[in-house]
Amino acid sequence: SVTDYMIICTGSSNRHMRHLAETTIQALQDSGQQILSTEGLNSDEWMIVDCGDAVLHVMSGEAREFYHLEGLWDINEQPVEE
């Protein structure tokens, strides 16, 4: 398996996406968790934070609709209520 957990979220703007990714990175670092890699932190489409057991995908609405990772990976969706 690629990862145990895949977290997919949609940012409403580039600024929102960056905030989600950077806040996650900071929280992981503060708790002593290892970050294996990050990708696309300057992208306005898709940002990835790879922690090994979990991978965070922060996507624009358009990218999320286009790539539809939930269908590609046959993910058991567990939406979080706002």
TrEMBL record:
One of its GO terms (molecular function) is ribosomal large subunit binding. Pfam families: RsfS. Gene3D superfamilies: Beta Polymerase, domain 2 (3.30.460.10). GO terms for biological process: negative regulation of ribosome biogenesis; negative regulation of translation. Belongs to the Iojap/RsfS family. InterPro entries: Iojap/RsfS/C7orf30, NT_sf. NCBIfam families: rsfS_iojap_ybeB. This is Ribosomal silencing factor RsfA.
